[in-house]
User: What shape does this take?
Amino acid sequence: MPKWTCPECHRQFAKKGQQHSCATKPLKDHFTNKLEAYKLFQLLLKKIELQIGKIKILSIPCCIHLYGSYDFMAILPKMKGVLELRFALDHTLKNKRIFASVPISSTSHKNCLRITSAIDIDAELLGWLKQSYSMHVKE
Assistant: This one.
């Protein structure tokens, strides 16, 4: 659960005084010349909202963050038709889709994968994202 709200940007964090940037970036700027990535992004948002829960979007210079009650995923639009997803779980995912999984705390691991087509936004991925979303829901 968030313990600290930045007085400048009003983002919530688990640690008081957590280092971050208050800067934002227009969402559309992440998708300049990346129409296919934007279409995947829109489909992913729709499926998350229908199957997982309500979300808020925060666009910052490095990436796009999705929030339920708490930040649960970062999205990095890559080449024209690629989205890189980074989401936290309480364990490392051992799956061929995951290209990196690193501990970010004693109880959380950042799992990273890329989606390149609508077929990649499947029940398996949505299950992982639901676990991540649920890890960070306020009780």
Observations:
- The helical segments are 35-51, 123-135.
- The chain has two helices and eight strands.
- Residues 31 and 38 are 6 Å apart (CA to CA).
- The chain has one domain: 22-135.
